[in-house]
Write a structure and sequence with these properties.
This protein has about 160 residues and is mainly α. Among the domains are: about 40-105, no CATH class; about 115-160, no CATH class. Helices cover about 65% and strands about 0% of the residues. It has helices at about 15-20, 35-40, 45-60, 60-75, 75-90, 95-105, 115-125, 130-145, 145-160. The relative contact order is 0.04.
Length: about 160
């Protein structure tokens, strides 16, 4: 048996191997695989990520509206809430508030009645979101005189019985 000379194969050691492994690939080298996150993501999440990329590329209302409708059909409420949370957190507070108010159909404060108060109040209520309706209903009730509160409660009770 003859001994092999380890140095005959050339100067190879661990330091050189580590150096070669840490070098960046050529700029034109093709990507060999998707990111690990997408590789292990569910089909629905991979699909949602591709849809996000498409909407970002289109950069128009139609693309975002389609993405929203399709996410509603394919993602859980928790996943959609997480997307919304992350997107709102990325905005300045004023932008986040305006965006959320638009989505929630916030009507803002009602304008003073011009001619027909009840008609204008109903129009405002048709634009208001749930939180606005509750806040203005309670504030309006609290601002009423006691006899008007009693009449209002009687009116609400009559509507409830009729239903």
């Amino acid at each position: 048996m003859t001994k092999e000379n380890a140095s005959a194969a050339g100067p190879r050691n661990g330091a050189e191997n580590a150096c070669e492994a840490s070098q960046l690939p050529e700029k034109d080298a093709p990507k060999t695989s998707a990111s690990a996150t997408l590789k292990y993501a569910s089909d629905a999440h991979q699909w949602a990520a591709r849809l996000l990329a498409a909407a970002l590329t289109l950069e128009d209302f139609g693309g975002w509206a389609a993405a929203s409708a399709l996410w509603a059909a394919r993602l859980t409420a928790r996943a959609r809430a997480s997307l919304a949370y992350a997107a709102l957190r990325s905005l300045e507070p004023e932008q986040a508030e305006m965006t959320a108010a638009t989505v929630l159909r916030a009507a803002g404060a009602p304008m003073p009645p011009f001619l027909r108060g009840m008609e204008e109040a109903r129009f405002w209520a048709s634009l208001a979101n749930r939180a606005e309706l509750k806040a203005f209903a309670l504030a309006s009730f609290e601002a009423m005189a006691p006899h008007d509160q009693t009449a209002f409660l009687r009116h609400i009770s009559e509507i409830e019985v009729a239903a």
